[in-house]
Design brief:
2 copies of one chain form a homodimer.
Chain A: H1 9-12, H2 26-34, E1 71-74, E2 80-83, H3 85-89, E3 94-101, E4 124-133, H4 134-140, E5 149-160, E6 163-172, H5 173-176, E7 182-187, E8 190-191, E9 201-203, E10 216-222, H6 229-233, E11 235-236, E12 245-246, E13 253-256, E14 261-262, E15 269-272, E16 274-283, E17 289-295, E18 303-304, E19 306-307, E20 317-325, E21 328-338, E22 363-368
Parallel strand pairs in A: 1-10, 15-22
Antiparallel strand pairs in A: 1-2, 3-4, 4-7, 5-6, 5-10, 7-8, 7-9, 11-12, 13-16, 14-15, 16-20, 17-18, 17-21, 19-20, 21-22
Chain lengths: 371, 371
């Protein structure tokens, strides 16, 4: 591999901004084609059907041999172990329903647009993940979590802004030891699909997707703050030289199941006039969703939707409301509030990398007279 | 629904062409985000793993209740039946391995670019489909195939160029009665994923994807040539006023498993100098693949690759060759020939709708010295 360029890590992590009226580039399209978004009508399901959950792969999907795979675990004191899938299967397992969302969801809706994976609003999905709590795994491996952070490395290997790397992210020890942080080997009761990290991945309920390291190969307790490439990249910055704030937990968001039927090209919707049930799902990584409001006039008025049963802390929650649809063009919006009082903004939340944009997604509907 | 516009069907079926240097539009991006391409590294698997097979949904994925679902079957003489999933399960079943490819695969590589679903080269996948041969199903339903064509209608409902429709396509009777044309209810041994047509879809081995009607609800024998919207749309035209030629069978194509590892944004590949195994897969709907050639100098020279075992008529076939990679920038190409003598072109095959572009896909590789 050629030597990495001499630019600073901070410089390397900055996204280019698209110019005014600059269309989506061939490079952005190639990312949109290979990384899968959830189509909006799939918001109708509590658990996202197989193959529709969003996927972002930084480099290539690795082809790992499950028989040869080992999870290397290392402590500060030199303790180390290498666990096989059979070793993991012998440990207590837990299943957690989790709504996972890419930190870049909504990036391509921003102006100016940061040039990277051009997500609209579909970089999300909900699954039941089954695996071994990381705390139990460390204990079984004889590795004491007595450091500052835990670094997780996956087998996804590539180059990003000139830096060759295995994808790696860290968590503070206290976060890593939460009982619902899993080394997961199953998704919705089946072995992980290859694109979701087969044979094992990290699941960190409540955090944006970049924390859930796929194709996990190494877990290391360290005594310092890990400053790998992906920690420089995933920061909220307004200006290129900002130190920025790390991207961590998922901000509140509500999305509607688009009513009626779509136009192939514009995706605008046609709805028949009369009573229409509007439903959707809402989630937040910072607290349980306690309120969802819906507007049928592009934010002019808001009405509280009825919330479905609580789904625990980390899976999206259904909401529903009625609408007496009158002929004409309408823009539908939804916004979520969580138990910490955080309210989803209706406008876009801009940052230089296009992270954590949880602005409401407008659903354009043409209501036509029945018959 | 508003009245359809007064433009002719032929006019409605024409794609707009993007202007010179016109970037991908927001509408094209929304299609790229919701319709999934197969990432190129998945070319390494004989059967495309769950969730990685390409999917094109014209309108919305329907939510069909499998208990209430019926397949309505109708003949010219007024004979009709409505079959449940249990009725289908009682009929003889067959499994066929099929490489399926969207007719629009490669559209976004064309210049000028027809504005529609902007596929690069990943609108493809291979699966084992299990279902009831259509011929047996018609016989069991007491419907005689004594017409000219068989029309297949799905539950996917929407608007396309002003025409509200359920997605519908027809086959000539002789084609529809081929013993490997299936009403499939399983993909790779499991019930169809919702996005692949649950609970039942048509599978027409060898034809481009538009023929394999998903969410099938109606099968009707007719005595005329069906001229529905999708038959106007899927035609090869050079000029807007051409009558055009119907898109039918998949043209030969070979694709490489990209060697080495990628850059996140450009997807360009880095390979270490020395012996490199180049592998890939090739397919054709017009005849079995009998030859694959590989070039490592952008088409300057071609060498025959070794073909893997025959996979039958309709599933892709592995090929492999060696390459002594020397440092520098290289463009790799592959091209397939089938038993009918059809050779894949190395340049793009342009048509007004962007269909059946089976030009070779360049794989850009930077070879670096080892160590």
């Amino acid at each position: 591999m050629a030597s990495p360029p001499t630019r600073s890590r901070d410089e390397l992590a900055r996204a280019r901004l698209a110019g005014p009226d600059e269309g989506i580039s061939a490079e952005e399209l190639s990312l949109a084609a290979r990384n899968h978004a959830m189509p909006m009508e799939a918001m109708r399901w509590d658990l996202t059907p197989v193959g529709l959950h969003y996927v972002l792969v930084h480099y290539d999907i690795p082809a790992l041999d499950p028989a040869a795979w080992r999870l290397r675990v290392a402590g500060l004191d030199g303790s180390a172990a290498a666990l096989s899938l059979a070793d993991l299967a012998a440990l207590p397992r837990r299943t957690v329903a989790v709504t996972m969302e890419c930190a870049g969801n909504g990036r391509a809706l921003l102006e100016p647009r940061p040039v990277s994976q051009p997500w609209l609003s579909g970089a999300v999905g909900t699954a039941e993940w089954t695996g071994v709590p990381l705390a139990d795994l460390l204990a079984a491996a004889g590795v004491r979590p007595d450091g500052l952070e835990v670094v997780f490395t996956g087998a996804d290997h590539g180059v990003e802004r000139g830096v060759e790397q295995d994808y790696a992210r860290a968590l503070p020890v206290a976060e890593a030891l939460r009982p619902d942080v899993l080394v997961a080997t199953e998704m919705n009761g089946a072995p992980l699909p290859v694109q979701h990290g087969f044979p094992a991945r990290l699941v960190v309920p409540g955090w944006y997707g970049m924390a859930h390291v796929k194709w996990l190969t190494d877990v290391a307790v360290v005594d310092h703050e890990f400053d790998g490439f992906q920690h420089q990249a995933y920061r909220l910055r307004q200006e290129p030289d900002d130190e920025g704030v790390p991207v961590t937990r998922i901000l509140p968001r509500a999305l509607l199941v688009p009513p009626g039927f779509p136009d192939f090209m514009t995706r605008d919707r046609t709805v028949t006039a009369g009573p229409v049930a509007l439903t959707g799902r809402a989630w937040s990584g910072t607290g349980e969703v306690t309120r969802v409001e819906v507007s049928t006039d592009d934010g002019g008025h808001w009405a509280d939707a009825e919330l479905g049963p609580s789904t625990g802390r980390y899976a999206w929650r259904e909401f529903r409301t009625g609408w007496d649809a009158e002929p004409g063009d309408h823009v539908l919006l939804a916004r979520a509030t969580d138990e910490t009082g955080q309210v989803q903004p209706t406008g876009p939340a801009w940052s230089r990398g296009g992270f954590a944009n949880n602005g409401s997604e407008p659903v354009r509907v043409r209501v036509v007279a029945s018959g």
